[in-house]
Amino acid sequence: MRRLALSLFAVALLAAAERYRPLVHFSPARNWTNDPCGIVSFDGEYHLFYQFNPFGDRWGHMSWGHAVSPDLVRWTELPVAIPEGDVMIFTGSSVVDWKNTSGFCAGVKPCLVAIYTGHQKGRQTQHLAYSNDRGRTWTKYAGNPVLDENMADFRDPKVFWHAASGRWVMVVALPKEHAVRFYGSADLKRWTRLREFGPAGATGGVWECPDLYQLPVEGGGAKWVLKIGLNPGHVAGGSGEQYFIGEFDGERFRNDNPASRTLWLDYGRDCYCALKYDGGPMIAWMNNWQYAGSLPTAPWRGQMTLPRELALKRFPEGLRLMQRPVDAVRARRGEKLLRPGGDAFDMTAEVRAGSAAEFGWKLMGGAVVGYDVRAGRIYLERPNGAFSEKFGGRAEAPAALENGVLRLRLVADRLSVEVFAQDGKVA
Ligand code: FRU
Question: Quick check: 376 and 398 in contact, CB under 8 A?
Answer without folding.
Answer: yes
